[in-house]
Amino acid sequence: MRYRTLGPHRVSAIGLGVMPLSIEGRPDEQRALATVHAALDSGVTLLDTADSYHLPGAGPGHNEHLVARALATYGGDTDGVLVATKGGRGRPSDGSWTVNGHPRHLKAAAEASLRRLRVEAIGLHQLHKPDPAVPFEESVGALRELLDEGKIRLAGVSNTDADQIRTARRILGDRLVSVQNQYSPAVRDSEAELRLCSELGLAFLPWSPLGGISRSSLDGPSRTEGEGRFGAFRAVADAHGVSPQQVCLAWLLARSPAVIPIPGASRPESIRDSAAAAELVLDAEELARLDGGEEREG
User: Fold this and answer.
1) Known active-site residue 183
2) Contact partners, residue 5, CB within 8 Å, separation at least 6
3) pLDDT tens column, 127-169
4) Which residues, in sequence order, are bridge partners of residue 6?
5) 170 Cβ partners below 8 Å, 6+ apart?
6) The dihedral formed by the CA atoms of 229, 230, 236 and 239, expressed in degrees to the nearest 10
7) Which terminus of the chain has a lower count of CB atoms within 10 Å, N or C?
8) CB atoms closer than 10 angstroms to residue 10
9) Residue ranges in 91-243 assigned as alpha helix (H)
């Protein structure tokens, strides 16, 4: 496993997005725990969760409880594992994703996450999404209060634009360490945000990083889209004798030293394959082919 910098931490270049283990189509608990354990066995030291990763209408925190159980039952050393969680979204019974960025809610949600994760302080707590009904500065201010109170050690923001990242940096200073936006072969809308993270020394955590190569966990069973627009990923994978998903993650790592992908997994085999992407080196010609003629960042 190779490593990258996330604030003061040295974490695995590939993390694990734990969401698929708690939402629709989730595996049974035995396989879910085995998946997290397989990630740890593969050298993964960044686990990404959220209080809203649960079945529609269920109580918050299923995924956080699962992460805590997985770490407690793992036979190896977990001292170097950074657990990142998020607050500010909900999942009502209709299956939608709501947003609540009110400071009082964010602070209460963080305290509940702290209890579920069974820690004295949350390693990395992230604002899940800006709430259009609440001034962004107020939501980020809640993170600052949580930092000052010692309930979270580091802060991040998610689903934010470049101006919001600058605002968060102004309010939180060096305690802002990460930005988590959607970014993948299929969705590259956050090029400006990735560039800004590289400039500011912030980690950029792409969510749904396999878009275009595999369906999101929210779309049903994973599948490879090997033809058409993303066929180059399959071709490069065939040349290396690896999966297109592994090539996709290696491509993301090459975009910038700030990038730390957090692919989801619901089987041990999937996260083992993803973790191996940290060791896959693509040459300049392959990267240009995967970029589709775009100029690479970093």
Assistant:
1) no
2) 11, 201, 203
3) 999 999 999 999 999 999 999 999 999 999 999 999 999 999 9
4) 9
5) none
6) -90
7) C
8) 12
9) 103-117, 136-148, 162-172, 191-200, 231-240
Tell me how far apart the alpha carbons of residues 275 and 71 are, in angstroms, rounded to a whole number.
Answer: 18
The vertex-266 CA angle with 264 and 271, nearest 5°, equals 60
- Calculate the CA 194 to chain-centre distance: 14
Looking up tokens 């394959």 gives 273
Pull the structure tokens for residue 90.
Answer: 């909900």
What is the Cα–Cα distance from 197 to 5, expressed in whole angstroms?
A: 12
Residue type, 58: A
Length of the chain: 298
Whose tokens are 């090997």? That residue is: 226
Whether the full predicted model's pTM is greater than 0.90, yes or no, is yes
Compute how many other C-beta atoms are within 10 angstroms of the C-beta atom of residue 80.
Answer: 14
65: enclosing H helix or E strand: helix 62-73
Residue 46, strand partner residues: 82
Rounded distance between C-alpha atoms, residue 60 and residue 217, angstroms: 19
